[in-house]
Amino acid sequence: MDKPNQNEFKPKIVGFLCNWCTYAAADLAGSSKMEIDSALTVIRVMCSSRVDPNLILTIYFNGADGILIAGCHPGDCHYGKGNYFTRRRYAQMKQVFETLNLDPGRLQLSWISAAEGNRYAEVVNAFTEKITALGPNPINQSSLF
Amino acid sequence: MSKMLTTDHGADKSVVDLLRFLLDTEKVSGVLTLRKTNTSGSLDYGLLTRSQELDRAVPLMPVMPANAAQSLSLITPTQKPIAVVVKPCELRGFVERIKREQGSLDNVLTLSPTCGGVIPLDTYIKKSKDNLTKDYYKQVKAGEIPESIRPTCKACEYFVPMTADITVSVVGEQNLDSKCRFILNSDKAVSMTEGFGSVENGDLDAKILDDHLKKREKEKKALFESIKFKQDGLDGMIDVFGKCIGCHGCSRVCPICYCLLCDFESRNFDQNVSLFEKELEQKGALRLPPDTLFFHLGRMSHMSFSCVGCGQCTDVCPADIPVASVFKKIGENTAALFDYVPGKDVNEDIPVLVFKEEEFKELGE
Ligand code: SF4
Ligand code: SF4
Ligand code: FES
């Protein structure tokens, strides 16, 4: 690996992980000693449907460069149907970001089951790469926002 | 073919006559209508139970002192039948509220005009009312879009009421001062008006309304093009909402924002010094009051699919922000995700309370 460059942009990413699947996948990835980028700060939620738009916006306005919402695959929600509601609310939120051209790419929804430690590492690393390429959240650059 | 009832008086008088008839025959025990509060022309909504109170009534006045959907939540469900005269977007707003358990249409007879649009409150209060309404009706009768109405009204394609029991034909009615046509859309409308006048088969004039719709669609396109924030992202947001004073007036008057304690007015948004310090350290300056952009984005993300584009929020904004134009645009896009038209069908759930398993497969990377 190259020596880390001091000036290189290191994004801050926040992930809302469902307790029953993606959070367990994160554990599995960790205990399997997979390489996971350290940019992600994890917030454990009991179901992906807990993530109200205002939570996402709180993180966004506090300057996170990327926000990940991850839960059980559709059909596998621990509470039956929570993640179908997550999906609708996320679709709406993303549409608001798209219409206003607010870098919708900073938001991501992913389905990762408890057994998918590998996939967890892949998703987090790929999202981190994508956000690194996007650059810092402009929220951080102006006191007008 | 629908049933139609025609009278030999102008529309304003005919609607008042019908309301009086409903009260006098005890078919309803109250009517909700716009009325004059003084001789200089100020208006409010009144729930009237005595027929002499109708002397003040101006049910078709093209002004919206409040979105009546909120008032309807206060007076329903009702055991006693009432009749209400509201604009199409107020009715749609009420339908959206009912879906949120904020009222009921049981025992309510709804009357609504084909709507020529609403004059902004500010204009109505400051200008000579006689000239204003004279010019307004001249254009409405000709099927034109009146100069004086709200920008979102000019751009509104839902000026024909969607769920009214009785539609009052106004747009494009050349003889509005000498005759009035009521379209009876429901069995309830037919039975309640029995004895008021002779009923025949008839309907709204599709050609006139269609021509008018084309004009509105053209206005809508121009309105959306005039809001340029699409290209600009956060800078564009600041262009539009930068002067927001954070009064939350826009959500108070919104027929959709019904929450008794809005999240944005709750302890969740209490600011404390430690948060300020973090931002000051990072940016070297802090915008006060904070969270104004957050407020608008939050509202959009919570309720935009239900926005009926009534324009009430723009009307009350002290900072002259075109709130309704933005929300109408955002709402159109979010509602389209779910094939949803707010206010169309009271039996349809709001989009975030239902789902289809087979949708949005593309989401979830
Ligand atoms: S009414 Fe205007 S100033 Fe008040 S919160 Fe809404 S947009 Fe801001
Ligand atoms: S957001 Fe504004 S235009 Fe839309 S329903 Fe509410 S008050 Fe009316
Ligand atoms: S429990 Fe995992 S998404 Fe609902």
How does this model look, in words?
The complex is a heterodimer of chains A (145) and B (365). The N and C termini of chain A lie far apart (37 Å). In chain A, 38% of the residues lie in helices and 16% in strands. In chain A, strands 2-1-3-4 form a 4-stranded parallel beta sheet, sandwiched between helices. The mean pLDDT of chain A is 93. The radius of gyration of chain A is 15 Å and the shape is globular. By secondary structure, chain A is of the alpha/beta class. In chain A, helix 1 (22-31) crosses helix 4 (117-134). Chain A has helices spanning 22-31, 53-61, 82-99, 117-134; strands at residues 13-18, 40-45, 66-71, 107-111. Chain B is of the alpha/beta class. Chain B folds into 2 domains: 3-223, no CATH class; 227-363, no CATH class. Chain B is built from 15 helices and 8 strands. In chain B, helix 2 crosses helix 3. The chains are: A alpha/beta (145), B alpha/beta (365). Chain A binds chain B through residues 53-54, 56-58, 61, 63, 73-75, 81, 84-85, 87-96, 98-103, 108-111, 123, 138-145, and chain B through 229-234, 236-238, 242, 263, 268, 279, 282-287, 291, 293-294, 297-298, 300-302, 304-305, 329-330, 333-334, 337-338, 351-353, 355, 357, 359-360, 363-365. Bound molecules: iron/sulfur cluster (2 copies) and FE2/S2 (inorganic) cluster. The site of one iron/sulfur cluster has 14 residues of chain B, from helix 14 and helix 15.
CATH domain topology of chain A: Rossmann fold
Give the % helix of chain A. Answer: 25-40%
Tally of domains of chain B: 2
The number of E-state strands of chain B comes to: 8
Mean pLDDT of chain B: 94
Name the strands of the widest sheet of chain A in spatial order. 2-1-3-4
The share of residues in extended strands of chain A comes to: 15-25%
Beta fraction of chain B: 5-15%
Bound molecules: iron/sulfur cluster, FE2/S2 (inorganic) cluster
Radius of gyration of chain B: 22 Å
Oligomer: heterodimer
Output the radius of gyration of chain A. 15 Å
The number of E-state strands of chain A comes to 4
Tell me the CATH architecture of chain A: 3-Layer(aba) Sandwich
